[in-house]
Amino acid sequence: MDTLAIRIENLREALRILQRCMGTAFAASFSLLLLQATSSPQSPLQIPGLVGAVGPVLARLILVAAYITSGFVGYAAVLQVIRIARSIDDRSARTEAMNFPTGSRRFATLSWHSSEYCCHRCCT
Fold it and tell me: Which residue, of 8, 26, 64, 110, has the greatest Cβ tally within 10 A?
């Protein structure tokens, strides 16, 4: 494989990681909202994947930690997407790689919208 194909695959994988982080953050925040609205202060909760039932306070802490961690990992993924996209010199290959069918394309291209690094056809 040539270096362009490797960079394009790395860009797509970084976009996949970003999509997973966004999904994890959404699931954690939604679960925290449901937990806040439905749980009584004394009832233990069973979280799948953990050994036993945990209290509502610990469940909230776990969800907040998952939300914050996915935010930091997502931010690192955005920086990785920007770095990889800037290293791809071929405009058409970069445009095709950014057309990754995840819906993250617009989010990932906002940070380098200039005529030098534009991933759209508006500046060409």
Answer: 8
Pair 27, 63: CB distance under 8 Å: no
C-alpha span between 69 and 108 (Å, rounded): 19
pLDDT in tens, the chain (124 residues): 788 888 888 888 888 899 899 999 999 999 888 888 776 666 776 666 666 777 778 888 888 999 999 999 999 999 998 999 888 888 788 777 777 664 444 444 444 444 444 555 444 4
* Whole-structure pTM value: 0.68
Pair 80, 12: CB distance under 8 Å: no
- The DSSP bridge partners found for residue 45 are 54
Number of H helices, E strands in the chain: 4, 2
* Closest to 71 (Cα-Cα) out of 27, 36, 110: 27
DSSP state, 43? -
